[in-house]
RVT 1 domain containing protein (Asbolus verrucosus), 230 residues
Amino acid sequence: IKHWSPSGGLLFWTVVLLYTADAKIYRTVNNNDDAMLLQRTFDSLNNWCLIYKLDLNTNKCKVISYSKPGVNEIKDLGITFNNHLCFDQYINNIVAKCLGLLGFIVRNAEDFTNPDVSKMLFKAYILSRLEYTSIIWYPIYTCYVDEIKRVLRKFLKFLWYKNNGSYPDRGFSQVTLLNCYDYSSLSTRRQVYALTFLYNLIRYGVDSLDLLNKINFHTYYISIFIKTSY
């Protein structure tokens, strides 16, 4: 504010700098409209400072937020998602759980004479867990593929023991075990599920335009020229 005062018969102009008290701005933000209203409040404060030529001391400006505590992982429909969208912990947990169930089946199926009963138990209690929503946590690293494969291999070795009275030697061919008991590898089964999902997505069997828009279709055109003579 500029004012004058007489001194020795002369007029002197004096500039007085004003400082505002602390200001606090807060708002509960539940949606985009609330965020826009909060931004408008900041804009209004900034315009007010420009009009009255008051600068904000940014060194004393602070921001604090009150919200629900953040977490590094959540469980949704039985699947563990972490903040890196990596499913290593889920795979380790499901393998450990399936190995425990396999031990339970082996102990209780020791006296079963029909191998189909053991196969049915494995399919119902273990295979269903190993393949549950595999399209989401599809393993791409060999270490996780081998870890999952270990469960099926232990079961196939148990079936071999039931038929032959002894377990196969260490390093025995996995392909031989699969063919002997008419099993496909877990990797092959996951690939079939993934391709089936892709087919249903393209054929509109799965209602998800977001996923469909991520697929790049390449169509090749063949031009056929027919020469005619007149």
